[in-house]
Amino acid sequence: MLSLGFVTLDEQQDHTYCTEVAKCARRYGISVCRFSPLGIDPQTENVRGFLFQEETNEWTNAVFAIPPFLYDRCFYGNDERSKKAKPIMNWLKQRPDLTFLGYGLPGKWDVYEALSSHPLLSAYVPPTVRLERADDVLALLRREQAAIAKPVHGSGGRGICIFQKKGKALSVQDSHGQEQAVIARRSELEQLLASWSRRGEYVLQPLLQLSTPEGEPFDLRILLQKDENGRWVERVRAVRVGRPGAWVANVRAGADIRPFSEWLDRLSSSKRLFVLDGVETIIRTLPVYMDHTFGPLFEIGLDLGATDNGAVWILDVNSKPGRKVAHLLPPEQQNELYEAPLRYCLFLARGGKANDLHVDH
Prior knowledge:
Layout: E1 2-7, H1 15-25, E2 30-35, E3 46-53, E4 58-65, E5 69-72, H2 80-94, E6 99-100, H3 108-116, E7 129-131, H4 134-143, E8 146-151, E9 161-166, E10 169-174, E11 179-183, H5 186-197, E12 202-206, E13 218-226, E14 232-241, E15 256-259, H6 260-265, H7 269-294, E16 299-306, E17 312-318, H8 331-349, E18 359-360
Parallel strand pairs: 1-2, 1-5, 5-6, 14-18
Antiparallel strand pairs: 2-3, 3-4, 7-12, 8-9, 8-12, 9-10, 10-11, 13-14, 13-16, 14-15, 16-17
Helix pairs in contact: 1-8
Organism: Geobacillus thermopakistaniensis (strain MAS1)
Protein name: YheC/YheD family protein
InterPro entries: YheC/D
C-alpha cells in the first residue's frame, strides 16, 4: 500500500482537510499519516506522528518511517519552530527517495521577477520594487496616492501595510485600515523600515483601487490543481469581499466568499469581456510557467485584482492555498478536492511527469 504524509508545523492545522482526504484514501490503496518535520528522529529517521485508522475514522499516535510521498502544508513565521523546521524540509526535498506532491514557490520577490520577465504575464504584474529604504516609498508616492508593502514570505494578509499621503505626512495603516503611525520625517520612516527588516524582506507596489461600489475591498481567488494525468485543472473561482474600510479581502479577517458569476453579472458587457480575457490568459499561462520556472507544483491559489477600467492584475500566487472558497462548490465537487491529492499521488507513483499542454476548465 502506498503511503502519503501530510507535513504541517501545527498538529491541528488542516485537520479537517487531512481527515477528509484520509477517508477517501482506502479506495486508492493509499494510507495517510500526518506529522511535523520536528517529529523526525535524526538518529533513526523515524517519525512520531499520527496514522489514520480506516476502521474508526480516527487518528492514532504512531511511530513510522518517513512516507515516500509527502504533501507539504508547512507555513513558516519568525518563531523558533519555523526556524528549526525549514532546514529539515529542505533536507527532505533534496532526498531522491522522497517525492513531494509539490515543491513550493519561493518568496514574492522571486515570483514577481519571474512573472515580469514573461512576454504575456508581465502585462498583468503591478510595478514592484524591493522595499529597502525610505526613498523607495517616497519615490512611489510622488507618482501614486498610496502604496502597499507586503512581506516577501507572508501569507493570509499578515504583515501587510499601507502608506498613504496625509497632507505633508504619511499615514501608515494595517490591512484592516487601522492607522498605526503618522510619519512626518524621513528619519521616522527609516526607523520604521529598519524595524520591519528585522522581521524579513518586503516588496512595495502601488495600491490598486480594488473595491466594490459599496466601498468593500475585493479580489478574485482561483484554485487550480493537477489531476490524475498531471494536467492543470481549475477547481473553483470566487470573489472575496472584505469589510468596508479595510484594504484587503482576507478570509481570516472576516471577508465574505461570493460566487464569481454573481460579481461578473454586475459588470458592463465591455468590462466583462476585458476581465474574462485577462483571467483566462493568466489561468492558461501561469501554472505551466510556474512549473517550468520553479519546479513541479500540485496546486496554486491565484489572487487577482480587477480595477474599474477592466484591467486584471496578479496580486499573489500561492502554492499552499487555503480551501475556504470551495464552500461554494456542491458536495460532489468538494469531494473532488479531497480526492485530488490521492489521484495525483498515484500519477506520481506510476512515474508520471506533469503534462503541461493546457489547463482544463
